[in-house]
Amino acid sequence: xxxxxxxxxxxxxxxxxxxxxxxxxxxxxxxxxxxxxxxxxxxxxxxxxxxxxxxxxxxxxxxxxxxxxxxxxxxxxxxxxxxxxxxxxxxxxxxxxxxxxxxxxxxxxxxxxxxxxxxxxxxxxxxxxxxxxxxxxxxxxxxxxxxxxxxxxxxxxxxxxxxxxxxxxxxxxxxxxxxxxxxxxxxxxxxxxxxxxxxxxxxxxxxxxxxxxxxxxxxxxxxxxxxxxxxxxxxxxxxxxxxxxxxxxxxxxxxxxxxxxxxxxxxxxxxxxxxxxxxxxxxxxxxxxxxxxxxxxxxxxxxxxxxxxxxxxxxxxxxxxxxxxxxxxxxxxxxxxxxxxxx
Length: 343
Description:
Elements (H helix, E strand, L loop, with lengths): L4 H15 L24 H12 L5 H8 L3 H21 L11 H14 L6 E11 L6 H7 E2 L4 E10 L5 E9 L4 H4 L1 H9 L6 E3 L9 H4 L2 E2 L12 H17 L1 H13 L12 H21 L4 H6 L1 H11 L6 H7 L11
Parallel strand pairs: 1-5, 5-6
Antiparallel strand pairs: 1-3, 2-3, 3-4
Helix pairs in contact: 1-2, 1-4, 2-4, 4-12
């Protein structure tokens, strides 16, 4: 999933306090008793590694048991207990929080790199998109109908995620039934946009999110769709066309964010159990909070790479290349320091 050693050690220090001072759930163990650390098959580092390895892969339990040298019963109990400890640790970790820009200063910090790259997308502070994850077919007819998506003819649980230009998630709606429309799922987000967002700032989305009221239209910027009234004047039409192109290009950041989550946590590719709602919610929250931790601690993600300042320097270099002397070009080179004066 891309955690470096420093981030893993930081996570382990917090995980250790919970693992060593709580018992593992079993029918024959007193939950308030003294933990028997010497009799456990894995220590805190092993348990954390087991949970992270399980999250980031699609391997069967049998292979996981062979890798960590534990029996099926031990593996199942350690995974269940370790996930609860990891979720509690991430909920308290300052680097794993979801931060909505409630102040003008924070919103301006997010909107500046977007506006710098796409001049027509003024005062846009983030990107919005939906995510569908596969769910197993339930024997219960009511549960099956709740997760069945008639548009795709499949069973899903739906999520809505809002990303910032640095790749982190600022708002998440997780584990909604797949049969619900995006407008219904996004109601808490609409309230967040209207009540807790600085005036004048907007979020970029696709055409799947309805914008019926004028207040919502002022808060969500989406490309024009079929049936919209287009301007008659050629200048206005050309501007709208350019705006649409920039919107489609900017929305790629939401796709990068979704890909980062699905690509890093392979367990999300496996169909989720339809009847265990709490398990689904915990798994999705752990994945999203680990994504936050990786973006802020490790700092490697596609969105941040695109919007960081080095790309602006390269654009300036390409634009002014024909007017620059060799010494100026050499000063802009990012790799010359590796050649010991040869460049």
